[in-house]
């Protein structure tokens, strides 16, 4: 039986490795401004991206290159060179968004499979057929499409692979076709520089042009002013329903600009959900508990399972972001012998351990600290915070760039975390100065 693919975001080399180690079958990312995530593209250079491809291939995984921006005429020569350069790195597919780039990529690198970006807004059999005839071997379906409609496309085009988003940021606009950021800050979403304007609070006014009167519209208490802020997509509890439909080839997670912990948790949770499905022990509640450890905007199952007019819970009107149930405290380096502090760590603090796989850890108790299982959860506590340079610290906070010795070796990219407290709170974006450079990850 051919299993569905789990596809994770790779915003940089570290996150690429984390996604693969935590269970992704494939990852997607890019280099340069032809990717819809300029910031994540800048975190890769050709050398590190090639290293990522080699890392994936050595483990039997795949890498898809995002060339899904919307180029101007003045960029076409550079685009041709970029396609040829990316092809030389031997990735497993290109993700492109426009018919012209699709045709160009096929001409320059006919041996590289072509995946059609969600930006192309494929919603029906007719459009899917056109792109398939042009050489697309996979479509990344529009977020607004239904599972039933995807079934119809698969019935008509059985050789066309279908990929759907199952987790991550949702866009206020139709499949990311947004110009709000362009209007307000000159940052063009469909060229990779969305300023996330939809995540900020707005005041609404009514104006009378005849009298020059301006009225502020005061909303009901508790409703808030985040009128364009979409909740985050979360279909973990619907994986069985999606796979039962028999028409989906790849499940995609959004988030190239999100944190390494996000890359780890989403890959681990959806890997388990997929494996549980094929083993006949699917349990949606378990997956949600782990996903809720991360920061989020509230979750919605959006439109794949339900029609848009049936939904009234896709917006978060109260805040832009809230803490998850846990706070990341540290991450283990790739050598497995040291950790880096990501929040704050004190001696004797008991932190949960999140590892890439389910391998059994060994209990340890020595002068550095303890690793033990408490009520079914592996934990770590330090007796002393010994830096690699030999200095002992009485406490460590994020920003301290020292590496600290572990009581025993742990798998690379293991995370330490603690339960979040109320004072960690929610994030309300109150001024344009706080705008994120990341934008939403469309591919």
From TrEMBL:
The keyword Signal does not apply. Keywords: Hydrolase, Protease. One of its GO terms (biological process) is proteolysis. InterPro entries: Peptidase_U32, RNA/ubiquinone_mod_enzymes. GO terms for molecular function: peptidase activity. Belongs to the peptidase U32 family. PANTHER family: PEPTIDASE U32 FAMILY (PTHR30217), TRNA HYDROXYLATION PROTEIN P (PTHR30217:SF6). This is Collagenase. It comes from Sulfuricurvum kujiense (strain ATCC BAA-921 / DSM 16994 / JCM 11577 / YK-1).
